[in-house]
# Entry
Amino acid sequence: MTRHIRTHRALEPEPIAVDIRLMQFMTRFLMSVFGLMVLVGMIWGLVRLPLFSITAMTLTGEVEHNNVLTIRANVTPQIRGNFFTVDLARAQQTFQSIPWVRKAVVEREFPNRIRVTLLEHKPVAFWGQEGEGRLLNAQGEVFDANWGEVDEDGLPKLKGPDNQSGLVLQVFDLVRPEFKKMGLDVIELNLSERGSWSARLTNGGMVEIGRGEPQEIVSRVSNFTKTLPQVSERYDRQVSALESADLRHDHGYALRLKGITTVDSQTLKR
# Structure
């Protein structure tokens, strides 16, 4: 007897129409966008709470030439935004525009403060012409300040193109020890627009050094300071009797001592 086995194939779901799938996608997309907007709105509302408004600042660091209360009174109104939105770069520029301030580091302090660390210029020399009110710091940078506010006595005067201020300070630091070997100090060093160096000493003597790289300048000055004591003694004079010297000669230097006429440079072999 033959048995017939019937098999039933599962019914396959009908494919969803393209327009229905598109509608489902758009619904999910719009819901996601709406949820994101709600989240952003909540965050924005939280950020703008008065709790986070900048209400105080902490000033630390070097404030020798500035009054803390004055800084706060002048700068605080210029700080815009709150803990989250304050522009730290702009705030930094504002603090660095204060006289004597070389660098300012501005940081946020949760929830409504900023911390400012100030570094002041350390003057090592007067710069430029008297009355210009400019100084040179230890990094060779020119900055504006009132010369009357300088506490350091006996700062030298350095002159030269502003873009060469670092070089002028470098050469000053190199030649100063050479002059000190004979008991004189440099009170003024000048670099002309044409690149020629000259120095004025504590006794009033003027030394024309000439052009050259820093090591050439040092070598020229060193040779001069080594021989000047002997030359001065030959004419029964002290080194302090130096009135002027010209080191721009190939085979020696021209020299004038108090009471002695200019010495022929050819007689002074270096």
